[in-house]
Amino acid sequence: MDRRSWLTGAASGLLLPWTSAAQAPRPVVGGLETFRVRVNRRGEWVLFRLTASSGLTGIGDASHGGDDELAMSLGRGFAEAMKGRGIFDVEWLRRTALPEVERSKRPAAVALGGIEQCLWDLQGKALGLPVYKLFGGMLHPRIRNYANINRSTEERSPAGFAAMARQAVSAGFDAVKLAPFDDMPRLDADPKLLSEFTELGVERTRAVREAIGPEKDLLIDVHSRMDLPRGLELAQRLATLNLYWLEEVCRGLPELAAINKAAPMPTAGGESLFGTKGFYEYIKAGAVDIVMPDIKYCGGLLEMKKIAAMAEGAGLPASPHGPASPVGNMAAAHVCATLPNFQILEYAFGEVPWRADLVEPPETLDRGWLGVPERPGFGIALNEETIRRHAV
Ligand SMILES: [Mg+2]
Fold first, then answer.
1. I want to staple 65 with a disulfide (CB 3.0 to 4.6 A). Which of 6, 107, 139, 212 is the partner?
2. How many angstroms separate the alpha carbon of residue 211 from the centre of ligand 1?
3. How far apart are CA 41 and CA 21, in angstroms?
């Protein structure tokens, strides 16, 4: 049986034990709507809206799963499985979805994360409380965001990156991230070519540092394009550029740990990991100084809280990854607001001019800081007109 027919089976209630009459006394969580909007060549935004039997709705971000159709299909399957369960059954959803996440990886992780976000938004609305109050209460009423300019920079020259960085600073951000080694050839390519592209990445970094000045924070994501020797050398070369952090230099936990130990600047990573288990191994290996769970990939809000707690126990800050839609950012912000070890949140700068209008009220950042609303749930709703206008 393939995955789609498995889901069809799940939808009809024929295969899954949790849809048996004994366990489904009443349908509490209702149907799922899925939306997809066109953003850019880097990916679309996939949004979920789950309606409870009360008529309340909750929203979630299930973007960047690598296969949007499959993520939406899996999301519908998880929502179908939730029928007969309550909006508080987050751990049940997690346990139920785990085998599919192990099978299908990222598309299932974003589907789970999207539904999980919907449940928390629903819980907040049902209780008349902002979601952060369900996660331990407010420590940070305003969430500092850094501008990730990598997704919006089309002109990939040092000057092109510098120009986009200046735009981010003009918009009020005091921290900027780029991934200047994205076009590195594979590591088995001609070493001369690898050195040329490394040089180009360093030039891009230097150009952005010059553009934003010495005071602003500069974050560099290597997207695992280096091997250990090149990564160690790179960390030393970037030392003079006063980085806020150096992210995901290479693959492999022992290699990352070696980079982390030797790097003169803090290192960060973990965006692609799922769940407490993935982060436990990562933290135990000493892979990074700063852990970066993604609300869409890591399992959702509750999983993010647990991961951040593990990091806290290890003496590490948590800086959630998330170049996502305003829905994902706000879902993450409600958790971040409660974290003793929260450091900074990611914001995808300049992807589309209509970004703020994806939600109501429109997303508002004050010089890079996102306020956490006091309204029930996440405090935002989908703007259906914007979604219709940019629908895939
Ligand atoms: Mg990254």
1. 107
2. 22
3. 45
pLDDT tens per residue across span 163-218:
999 999 999 999 999 999 999 999 999 999 999 999 999 999 999 999 999 999 99
Asked if the model's pLDDT at residue 48 lies above 90, the reply is: yes
Distance (angstroms) between ligand 1 centre and the Cα of 88 equals 31
Q: What is the 103 CA–ligand 1 centroid distance (Å)?
A: 24
Structural domains of the chain, with CATH: 3-128 (3.30.390.10), 133-372 (3.20.20.120)
Q: With DSSP H G I counted as helix, E B as strand and the rest as coil, what are the percentages for the chain, rounded to 5? A: 45, 20, 35
CA dist 261 and 348 (Å) reads 29
How many whole angstroms from 390 Cα to the centroid of ligand 1? Answer: 26
**Cα 225 to ligand 1 centroid, rounded to whole Å:** 11
CB-CB contact of 109 with 274 (8 Å): yes
Determine whether 346 is exposed, middle or buried from the number of CB atoms within 10 Å of its CB (0-12, 13-18, 19+). buried
Ligand 1 centroid, distance to 238 Cα (angstroms): 17
pLDDT at 30: 76
- Please tell me the distance from the alpha carbon of residue 247 to that of residue 292, in angstroms, as a whole number: 10
Is 3's pLDDT higher than 80? no
Q: Are 293 and 321 spatial neighbours (Cβ–Cβ below 8 Å)?
A: yes
Q: pTM of the full predicted structure?
A: 0.92
Closest CA to 267 of 245, 240, 238: 245
Ligand 1 geometric centre to CA of 269 (Å): 7
Which tokens belong to 277?
């288990």
- State the Cα–Cα distance between residues 370 and 149, nearest whole angstrom: 17
